[in-house]
Amino acid sequence: MGFSTFSIVFKITICLFSFSILFGSSNAQLNATFYASTCPNVSSIVRGVIQQTLQSDPRIGASLLRLHFHDCFVNGCDGSILLDDSSSIQSEKNAAPNSVSPQWKPNVSECP
Question: Which of these is catalytic: 45, 46, 70, 82?
Answer without folding.
Answer: 70
